[in-house]
Design goal:
The complex is a heterodimer of chains A (298) and B (152).
Chain A: E1 20-21, H1 23-29, E2 35-39, E3 56-57, H2 60-64, H3 75-85, E4 92-96, H4 102-113, E5 119-122, H5 125-131, H6 162-168, E6 173-175, H7 179-183, E7 207-208, H8 224-234, E8 242-246, H9 252-263, E9 268-272, H10 275-279
Helix pairs in contact in A: 4-9
Chain B: H1 6-9, H2 15-25, H3 29-42, H4 48-51, E1 58-59, E2 68-74, E3 77-83, H5 89-102, H6 107-111, H7 124-127, H8 129-151
Antiparallel strand pairs in B: 1-2, 2-3
Helix pairs in contact in B: 3-5, 5-8
Classes of the chains: A alpha/beta (298), B mainly alpha (152).
Chain lengths: 298, 152
């Protein structure tokens, strides 16, 4: 049985308030049957130096990525992963992590590829939990293994491949990287030189909306009115639009995907996980340079 | 596994570096991560004499978290000092491995360290190759600082 949703008024205006929980809500329910807390971080050892009591760790690089194919793990591997972590198909999963929930949002998006229905984000992530002095432990979490079913990954609904993006050109694209990456001044994010591409710039016609604009000073998501101002008034998105978001490797754009899909309620949003590391190095795809979206290639 | 092939394993390393490598390769992958965590906790604070000299510290931009290094050479040889936030245990672990690996070596010995030393520790799968690049960046910057100093 899914756990009741967080009735916090802070979430009430969002299209899908059931996708967020507050730190307070979570602390009150730690240990509840049917609730599993998952930590997903950029730093592969951060969980080990302290995590929410009872939380299990899922790492993007070592757990969710296929080690050979540049792709996510398949249904059998996902089933094995979740079974081993003691997560059942009908469990309520709350994910949190470092870096404003980048990797948590990424994990949530991957859970969604496999159709795990009740998966939520901890608003404010790991930093807010710790800043508020809530419990942290280094005790290992042991959950009895369960039998998670093998479910085929659905790549059609919320994921875009490069070919999908080419076919999508002319419809709204959101580039969530830094302004310097968008304009082409640099091929990598300031602190991530290893995630590079051969060319610098952006996908023609993409609007630049850095992911961090969706986040308030305290690390929580901005209220709906402010998100509307950023994505509807600012980036020109309208109800019914099909939208593709991308970044460098698909993690920051998972964060924006969450905002567009679950907070603003756009029904048709896809994350292009190949993102700039693929597009900026691919043969025979157009790019645009500079701070303007640019024209579609003829 | 490609990152553990025989060729790089037999490459000559200073004894203290070979010991660290062997320590990692002797245990399974899960334990290697634990070992990295132990290294991260052993990273000493920056010596007080450098704490007030941020100008001496070089940012390792290859690392995803803010880490700064400074290479010192005295009569005992080379010393690597590094500082990184507590919330970046992986980066701290990388810095700590390198600091222990080079401590007391001569500048020439450090300059001769194979550039793929980070890949010799069998951490590729437990940490991911992308993250390991951070340690490569640290190693390269350390060597560059030493080379620049030797050229003066």
């Amino acid at each position: 049985m899914p756990i009741e949703t967080d009735p916090s008024p802070a979430f009430a205006e969002y299209a899908h308030p059931e996708r967020l929980v507050t730190t307070e809500w979570l602390e009150q329910r730690l240990g509840a049957p049917g609730l599993v807390v998952v930590e997903s971080d950029e730093d592969v050892l951060l969980y080990e130096i302290g995590h929410i009591p009872g939380a299990v760790k899922i790492d993007w690089h070592t757990d969710l990525n296929d080690p050979v194919l540049r792709d996510y793990i398949d249904g059998a591997a996902f089933a094995a992963l979740l079974s081993g972590r003691g997560i059942s198909r009908d469990d309520t999963v709350v994910i949190y992590g470092d870096k404003n929930n980048w990797w948590a949002a990424y994990a949530l998006w991957v859970f969604t590829l496999f159709g795990h229905s009740d998966v939520r984000l901890l608003d404010g992530g790991r930093d807010k939990w710790i800043a508020e002095g809530r419990p942290i432990t280094t005790d290992a979490t042991t959950r009895p293994a369960v039998d998670y079913p093998v479910v085929e990954r659905d790549d059609a609904t919320i994921r875009a491949y490069k070919e999908d993006v080419l076919a999508h050109l002319g419809k709204p694209l959101i580039d969530v990287r830094s302004p310097e990456e968008y304009s082409g001044e640099r091929t990598t994010a300031p602190a991530y030189p290893e995630e590079s591409a051969l060319r610098a710039g952006h996908i023609p016609t993409a609007q630049s909306v850095p992911w961090s604009r969706a986040v308030a000073e305290n690390g929580t998501f901005r209220p709906l009115s402010e998100l509307d101002a950023i994505y509807r008034d600012g980036a020109g998105l309208n109800d019914g639009d099909e939208v593709v978001a991308y970044c460098r490797i698909g993690e920051r754009s998972s964060h924006t995907w969450f905002v567009l899909r679950h907070l603003l309620g756009f029904e048709n949003v896809r994350n292009y996980d190949g993102s700039w590391t693929e597009w900026g190095s691919a043969v025979r795809v157009p790019i645009a340079i500079g701070s303007e979206p640019g024209e579609l290639p003829r | 596994m490609p990152w553990e092939n025989k060729e790089i394993m037999t490459q000559t390393l200073p004894d203290q570096m070979a010991e660290i490598r062997d320590e990692f390769l002797a245990v399974d992958e899960k334990s290697r991560l634990q070992l990295l965590l132990e290294f991260s906790m052993e990273l000493p604070d920056l010596p007080a004499r450098y704490a007030d000299h941020p100008d001496l510290l070089e940012r390792v931009v290859e690392c995803q978290s803010p880490v700064f290094i400074f290479v010192e050479v005295d009569e005992q040889g080379v010393h690597l000092h590094a500082t990184a936030p507590r919330e970046s245990p992986t980066t701290r672990g990388f810095a700590s491995i390198l600091a222990q690996a080079v401590d007391g070596l001569s500048a020439d010995e450090v300059l001769a360290i194979p550039s793929d030393f980070p890949q010799m520790l069998g951490l590729g799968r437990a940490v991911s190759p992308l993250r390991l690049n951070g340690m490569n960046g640290m190693l390269q910057r350390m060597k560059r600082q030493l080379a620049a100093r030797a050229a003066v």
